Amino acid sequence: MPDYIHDLKKNTGRTMELRFTDGYVVRARLISVDPDSAPNDLVYDVVEVMSWGPLDPAKVDLKSAHSASAAQLASWRVVP
User: Fold this and answer.
1) Confidence band (pLDDT; 50, 70, 90) for 36?
2) Sign of dihedral through CA atoms 70, 57, 54, 79?
């Protein structure tokens, strides 16, 4: 398991800025990190979309939990 998965898992429950390689950027509460559930090993609740990237806002339900692959993260950081 890559080291960054352990680092992400330590931040479960915290608010993060998640930047994906496709340009999608969100402020989100990290719900879970499960490396055994690949390819979607991150589950998060979106607090704010900072950049939509290629996504169509009309097709995204911001009231539901979202999942993604940690391998698609360009960067991430804990935010207040």
Assistant:
1) confident
2) negative
